[in-house]
Amino acid sequence: MKRALISVYDKQGIVGFSEKLIEFGWEIISTGGTYKELKKAGIPVIEINEITKFPEILDGRVKTLNPILHGGILYRRDNEKDLETVNEYGLCKIDMVVNNFYPFEETMKKEGLTEEEIIENIDIGGPSMLRAASKNFKFVTVIFDHEDYEIVIEEIEKFGDTTLETRKKLAGKAYSYTAYYDSLVADYFNNTNSTLFPKHLTIGYKKNSDLRYGENPHQKAALYEKSIQNIPNTINAKKLHGKEMSYNNIFDANALLELLTEFDEPTAVAIKHGNPCGISSSHDIYTAYLNAYNADTESIFGGIVGLNKEVDKKLASKLSEIFLEIILAPSFTSKALEILQKKKNIRLIEIDKLNEFKKDKMTFKAINGGLLYQEKDNLLFNGELEVVSKRKPTQRELDDMNFAWIISKYINSNGVVLAKDKTSLGIGLGDVNRYFAVESALKKAKGNTENSVLASDGFFPFDDSIKLLAQHGVTAIIEPGGSIRDKEVIEEADKNNIALVFTGIRHFKH
Known about the structure:
Elements: E1 3-8, H1 14-23, E2 27-30, H2 32-40, E3 46-47, H3 48-52, H4 67-74, H5 80-89, E4 96-100, H6 104-108, H7 115-119, H8 125-135, E5 141-143, H9 149-159, H10 164-192, E6 205-211, E7 221-226, E8 238-241, H11 247-260, E9 267-272, E10 275-281, H12 285-295, E11 304-307, H13 313-319, E12 326-329, H14 334-340, E13 347-350, E14 362-367, E15 370-375, E16 386-387, H15 395-408, E17 416-420, E18 423-428, H16 434-445, E19 452-456, H17 464-471, E20 474-479, H18 486-495, E21 499-502
Parallel strand pairs: 1-2, 1-4, 2-3, 4-5, 11-12, 12-13, 19-20, 20-21
Antiparallel strand pairs: 6-7, 8-13, 9-10, 9-11, 14-15, 16-21, 17-18, 17-19
Helix pairs in contact: 8-10, 13-14, 16-17
């Protein structure tokens, strides 16, 4: 007789699955709540302590941690010594383990829980059983996901048991599940212990969906999400209209959201290929969008736009005049939706609690053979700004420099931002030379640079950029400082009556 050990927290589909096993002549042993659930449904089931001759103890902390069970899972059916051990100690032969864990993930999403409540939701017996069954996949079927019940039943009905191929796939899936679960627990302890860089890094993500393709059509891709997140983001945002988000859409929308949420006053941000191309803050969101659009009327085409205030009929009419991939906002009026939903391919994304958005603390990049793991660049300034020029900046210049400095965090290095009246004029980014970045920004500004300011994500290594900016009417510059030629840069700024401010912090982005 085949025997299944069933002990699940998530009981979805377990009654129907168990009924089928009984129909195929299997015997079922079970624990606690699962035993009661199956018994209530009229399914013949053996309580686990009848097998182990040992009760559940320590308030349920120990139920299945027993050599009679684990030996019955792990013994090799084609090994004579193992068979002798089974007979000698009366081990319980188990051919299938069906188990899922205490809801640690769901517990961590709740607020106000004590450490004791959190700890008691760490499953011990479940992962042990899944690991044991997975290790012995040659003979034992392991299931944790109710979505796999159907294929297991189909194979038993067709072949009398699951196939070796299926058992091996389920084993791999189970090990991924236990590793994911353990990563959540490890993350909890590392966070409470303020451990940023543990010796062994485990990062747990679960699959959200398959994507049509990656950055390019020949690349396969999927979207994975962090398990414990109660804050608004591009993954849990509400899509009101349009086709599914692509890999590039999701990447761009995240870049947009991070920049947009840096501002409190009405602000519009246009993003293209992960980089901002037009940004403006103003007294109302309509004006902010007009300014952002006019900052770069060419690059915005086919890009995405984010607005931190509600989109109304007037703004929707303006937005509908050009082709945009995505419009992201905290809300849309019914009239605005009526206008924008006429555009078949546009995606309308609603994130209703932008003010609650919080950036991740850590970030990583994959490289061949490893990961680069670091704290996210969430710091804007590091102490007081230092005015190093003879002329102090005006309040308007300071406001514009602060605006441009925020943007500089979100552009690829080498990067510079020209701005005036809290509107970007030209953005030079991703250049191998800072002078080239300045040239690019000036070119994009199309001569509209008189009395503007510039922010640079890194220091100026020479005074040539300062000379060029002075020729185009730039009156104030904000940069990290720290070059061996700072003195020459300061002297050139003073020569041209430019206010120069050092931040003491840089914002390289690679």
